[in-house]
Automatic annotation (TrEMBL):
CDD domains: SIMIBI. Pfam families: Clp1, CLP1_N, CLP1_P. Gene3D superfamilies: Clp1, DNA binding domain (2.60.120.1030), P-loop containing nucleotide triphosphate hydrolases (3.40.50.300), Pre-mRNA cleavage complex subunit Clp1, C-terminal domain (2.40.30.330). GO terms for biological process: brain development; mRNA 3'-end processing; tRNA splicing, via endonucleolytic cleavage and ligation. GO terms for cellular component: mRNA cleavage factor complex. Belongs to the Clp1 family. Clp1 subfamily. ATP binds at K28, D90, V91, G92, K93, S94, T95. Its main location: nucleus. This is Protein CLP1 homolog. GO terms for molecular function: ATP binding; polynucleotide 5'-hydroxyl-kinase activity. It is found in: Nucleus. InterPro entries: Clp1, Clp1/Grc3, Clp1_C, Clp1_C_sf, Clp1_N, Clp1_N_sf, CLP1_P, P-loop_NTPase. It comes from Diatraea saccharalis (sugarcane borer).
Length: 391
């Protein structure tokens, strides 16, 4: 794809005239122009069209309102707006988040991007939540720069798999983001923009309201769901602005198979890169050199629990996991914790490895890692996510 004349942008990042951009199978992109442009497409596309109506003016107005709040925060020495984007699956939450971040950066701001979507996140691999300081517009082909993001382990692709653990790490991430804002005036006045997952009913709604409380949000942008808008308007404190926004007509609904493929692609990108290729290392490690833990012990009825303990406590307990053939193709998170008695849930992650084979006779794991051989006694957290390394 190439812009031949005029000016255009892609999700808030300006396109350079005459520069070719490459998109791979499965990419869904929307080029927008305020004044008109000519775009040349090469190669086969599943569908390409020019839309007459788009909600871009509405989204730009949202950006302008947030910018006014940032200016006021600068003048008064207070915190900038904390904005949460919510809505059902496949309505364009990630796209709107990226758009608002890009517009903020182009105004000279340094907002913090928080991604609470454990199924289709943009900061790290699936099964995690994270935050990163955004200092420059997202690259057209590779998204936001991934320099040293703050990432916490969840290990499942839906919050419903362990609500207690999910809420615990959301609270922890909120505490650390607040702390960072206190130590970085520029980030503090620029504010925070939070992307969420598409589970909005029942327990999913409680997850959203818990995140809103934990991050002390000022603005909630509800995409394309009137019922959710009405419920949040009713339940949120008066100072929280709840705004209803239309979704873009170009948003495409994905099947569960497509979502699963997207998750695999995110894990593959972590090890092998997207546009710039990476060359991961593969090596054998003795069982005795690793400490593997799993979050969540089997839950027991309250009558069988030790005195003063609740069944929910088991969901956030860290228990040792012994190597077995079941570890093959599992993704493991590498913790920054130096010892197992540190609070593993509240310690952020250094990276990920994938177990490609288990040899019970030799008592070794074959591991795929972006880094050379890890140190002995590395603490690893077990994830439910699997990755078949058939690169």
């Amino acid at each position: 794809m190439q812009v031949k004349s005029g000016y255009a942008e892609l999700f808030g990042t300006e396109l350079v005239k005459g520069k070719p951009y490459e998109f791979h199978t499965g990419s869904k992109v929307a080029v927008f122009t305020w004044h008109g442009c000519t775009v040349e497409l090469r190669g086969r596309t599943e569908v390409s069209y020019v839309a007459k109506e788009t909600p871009m003016v509405v989204y730009l107005n949202v950006h302008a309102a947030l910018e006014q709040q940032r200016v006021a925060a600068e003048q008064e020495g207070t915190r900038g707006p904390v904005t949460m984007v919510v809505g059902p699956g496949d309505v364009g939450k990630s796209t709107l988040t990226r758009l608002l971040l890009n517009y903020a950066v182009r105004m000279g701001r340094r907002p913090i991007f928080v991604d609470l979507d454990v199924g289709q996140g943009n900061i790290s691999i699936p099964g995690t939540i994270g935050a990163t300081l955004v200092e420059r517009p997202a690259s057209i082909e590779e998204g936001f720069s991934q320099q040293a993001p703050l990432v916490y382990h969840f290990g499942h692709n839906s919050p419903g798999e362990n609500l207690e653990l999910y809420n615990t790490i959301v609270t922890r991430l909120a505490e650390v983001v607040t702390e960072r804002c206190e130590n970085n005036k520029k980030a503090s006045t620029s504010g925070v923009i939070i992307n969420t997952c598409g589970w909005i009913k029942g327990a999913g709604y409680k997850v959203l309201t818990h995140a809103a409380q934990a991050f002390e949000v000022d603005v909630i942008l509800v995409l394309d769901n009137e019922r959710l808008f009405i419920e949040l308007k009713r339940d949120m404190p008066k100072f929280v602005k709840v705004v209803y926004l239309p979704k873009s007509g170009g948003v495409v609904e994905r099947s569960s198979a497509q979502r699963s493929e997207a998750r695999d692609a995110r894990i593959r990108e972590y090890f092998y890169g997207k546009r710039t290729p990476y060359y991961p290392h593969s090596f054998d490690v003795k069982f005795s050199d690793l400490k593997i833990y799993k979050v969540g012990a089997p839950s027991l009825p309250d009558s069988c629990m030790p005195l003063g303990m609740r069944a929910e406590d088991a969901l956030t307990r860290v228990v040792p996991a012994w190597p077995s053939p079941a570890l093959a193709h599992r993704v493991l998170a590498v913790s920054f914790a130096a010892a197992a008695d540190e609070d593993l849930l509240h310690t952020n992650l250094a990276g990920f490895v994938c177990v490609t084979a288990v040899d019970m006779e030799r008592q070794t794991l074959t591991i795929l890692s972006p880094q050379p051989r890890p140190l002995p006694n590395t603490i690893l957290l077990l994830s439910e996510l699997q990755y078949m390394d058939n690169h």
